[in-house]
Amino acid sequence: MSTTPNEDKKEERKAYKARHGRESYTKYSEAKKQGMIATALDRYRSETPEQRLRRNALWRQAWARRKRKAELAKMSEEQRKREVERWDKLAPEEREAENTLEHRLYTMSMNAIDDLGTDTPDRSLSTKWSYSRDKKVRNAVRRRAKGKCEFCGKPGFMGQSGKPYLETHHVIALSDEGADRLTNVIALCPNDHREAHFGKRCAAIETEMILKLKAINR
């Protein structure tokens, strides 16, 4: 009874493990892998640029054939027929271009997260109203805080200017007719500032901040 190459390899692995043990087989596998890498590198260095391009093109074609076969198997009979007809009408150059594009998209999807997004993001123009804020009020609030968040009491991290970093927050928003005065502005660490805007407890935090400001400005 004839055996397949895969079955032969399985039997070879079993026999080696039986003779030398699993740990020795692991070392053997690693050495074999390193040997294959060295062989591939030697072959790569000996190739001309044209030979490398041709080998890469053949590899892409083989990859694309496997991918097309898997995709066709998922299609309905009618979809499969239309796709086969479309593919048959393509010129060899068009097929190669499509295979190259499919492979590039697949490679991009499998790469690290740095490859997500785009190097040339789209831009859009937007126009909106914003409220002017008095810089003197902001600076006075930061001086009043003395480097500590006026809500949690923890010091802000050291900024590039060499001073503790704190953000100023209007407890009653200017859009809600809040005043741009010391009695309505509090110095916060970035975490408390974001929670005051977007946290689940934002309503409760606003009430607590109003009470804290009343105590501070007595």
Your description of this structure?
With 218 residues, the chain is mainly alpha-helical. Strands 1-2 form a two-stranded antiparallel ribbon. Helix 1 (5-20) crosses helix 2 (22-46), helix 3 crosses helix 5 and helix 7 crosses helix 8. It has 8 helices and 2 strands, in the order ααααααββαα.
Outline the secondary-structure elements.
Blueprint (H helix, E strand, L loop, with lengths): L4 H16 L1 H25 L2 H26 L2 H13 L2 H19 L24 H11 L21 E4 L14 E4 L1 H9 L3 H15 L2
Antiparallel strand pairs: 1-2
Helix pairs in contact: 1-2, 3-5, 7-8
Q: What labels would you give this structure?
A:
DNA Binding (I), subunit A; 218 residues; single chain; mainly alpha; 2 domains
Strand order of the largest sheet: 1-2
Distance between the termini: 97 Å
Spans where pLDDT lies below 50 across 5 or more residues: none
The main pleated sheet reads as: 2 strands, antiparallel
Radius of gyration: 33 Å
Structural class: mainly alpha
Shape: elongated
Mean pLDDT: 80
**Helix and strand pattern:** HHHHHHEEHH
Total DSSP E strands: 2
Percent in strands: under 5%
Count of domains: 2
Task: Specify the helix fraction band.
Answer: 55-70%
Secondary structure tally, helices: 8
Provide a compact summary of the structure.
This protein is mainly α. The protein has helices at 5-20, 22-46, 49-74, 77-89, 92-110, 135-145, 190-198, 202-216; strands at 167-170, 185-188. The model has no long low-confidence stretch (mean pLDDT 80).
